[in-house]
From TrEMBL:
Protein name: PhzF family phenazine biosynthesis protein
Top-rank taxon, per record: Bacteria
SUPFAM superfamilies: Diaminopimelate epimerase-like (SSF54506)
Source organism of the structure: Streptomyces gibsoniae
InterPro entries: Phenazine_PhzF-like
């Protein structure tokens, strides 16, 4: 069996919740894309990362059904695990930094996969949503406290791969931050926390807590 680490990315303030991420530190053990896709499907995480160069931070990202050029929580988690100043993805070079309990990356919104950002009137409406049928990737959100930038969100991938709801979605938070043009404090899923902040020239920072699960 291929060795891999399991991280929890975007954990809540008490250290719970977060989105699990599989990381194969030695990507050379699974060199073929088809084998990587098969392993990602077998592991069943929302994303699995294969590290192709740990010193330069070169990674390859897969969901259970497809390869992604960029994704938020895999970049945040892998940057923390490798302790590197940048992550190199097919979409572009992602800046990375550590700041106390938070791991941060900096990326461009156009790197994110398409998401339907659907606003609701209240956080209670978001909490009450049922998983929609497969189709579009929906990021449901509502203001909890607009003045403070606090948002309640849930992510529904809309894929038939066993991932009905994404516990924490950095790419969707990136797109929402770019749309709203302000820093956000997002509570997603059962209790995950994502922080964001717009940067000059269209860049957006995304931050969260990362823990090594096993």
């Amino acid at each position: 069996m291929t060795d891999y680490d399991v991280l929890r990315v975007f954990s809540g303030p008490g250290g719970g919740y977060g989105n699990e991420l599989g990381v194969v530190r030695d990507g050379s053990t699974v060199p073929e894309r088809s084998d990587r896709q098969a392993l990602a499907a077998k592991l069943g995480f929302s994303e699995t990362v294969f590290v192709d160069d740990p010193e330069r931070g070169v990674i390859d990202i897969y969901t259970p059904t497809l390869r992604l050029p960029f994704a938020g929580h895999p970049c945040v988690g892998t940057a923390w695990l490798l302790d590197v100043p940048e992550i190199v993805t097919p979409a572009g070079v992602v800046g990375a930094r550590q700041d106390g309990e938070f791991s941060w990356i900096e990326a461009l919104p156009e790197w994110a996969p398409p998401r339907t950002l659907r606003q609701y009137a209240t956080a209670a409406e978001v909490d009450g949503l049922k998983v929609p049928p497969p189709g579009e990737w929906i990021y449901a959100w509502a203001w909890e406290d607009e003045a403070a930038g606090r948002i309640r969100a849930r992510g529904f991938p809309g894929r038939d791969d066993g991932i009905d709801e994404d516990e924490a979605t950095g790419a969707a938070a990136l797109l929402l931050t770019a749309r709203l043009g302000r820093a956000l404090n997002i509570t997603q899923g059962a209790g995950s926390q994502i922080l964001t902040a717009p940067q000059p020239e269209g860049w957006v920072e995304i931050g969260g807590r990362v823990f090594l699960e096993r």
